[in-house]
C-alpha cells in the first residue's frame, strides 16, 4: 500500500492536519490538506494546506513570510489525521498570535492566553 493510500481522506478529499512546534511541542494550528497539498509538503518540506473557503492550495506564509518548515509528518492510528512537526517563523495565527490556540476557558468566558508576535494589519493573512 502506498504512502498516500494509507491516509483516509474524507468524502471531500480532505484530511485534518495539526501543526505543532517541533521544539516546544506547542500546538500551533489546525488546517486541511488534500492529496496534492500533502504531496507538496512531503516534497518541499514547507507546509502546504488546502483552503476550503478559497478552494485552492496555500503555502503557509507565502504572503506573510510566517512559514512552517516541516521537520516530521506523522499519521494517527486511524489514518485520518496528520501531525506536522514544524519550525514556525513568526506566528501561525492570522490574527497575529504565535499559536491559533491563544484563548483559554476561564470560568464562563474565553481569555487571551497567547503571545502576539505580529500585527496582522501590517501584512497579508496566513
Supply database-style keywords.
single chain; 126 residues; mainly beta; 8 strands; 8% helix; globular
Largest sheet: 4 strands, mixed
Strand content: 35-45%
Strand order of the largest sheet: 2-1-6-5
- Poorly predicted ranges: none
Number of strand segments: 8
Helix content: under 10%
**Structural Rg:** 15 Å
Order of helices and strands: EEHEEEEEE
Overall mean pLDDT score? 94
Morphology: globular
Structural class: mainly beta
Describe it.
The chain has 126 residues and is mostly beta strands. The protein contains 1 helix and 8 strands; from the N terminus they run E-E-H-E-E-E-E-E-E. The strands form 3 sheets. Strands 2-1-6-5 form a 4-stranded mixed sheet, covered by helices on one side. Strands 3-4 form a two-stranded antiparallel ribbon. A two-stranded antiparallel sheet has the order 7-8. It is globular. The mean pLDDT is 94.
Question: Which helices and strands appear, and what pairs or packs with what?
Answer:
Elements: E1 15-21, E2 27-33, H1 35-44, E3 48-51, E4 56-59, E5 68-75, E6 82-88, E7 103-106, E8 109-112
Parallel strand pairs: 1-6
Antiparallel strand pairs: 1-2, 3-4, 5-6, 7-8
Task: Sum this structure up briefly.
This protein is 8% helix and 36% strand.
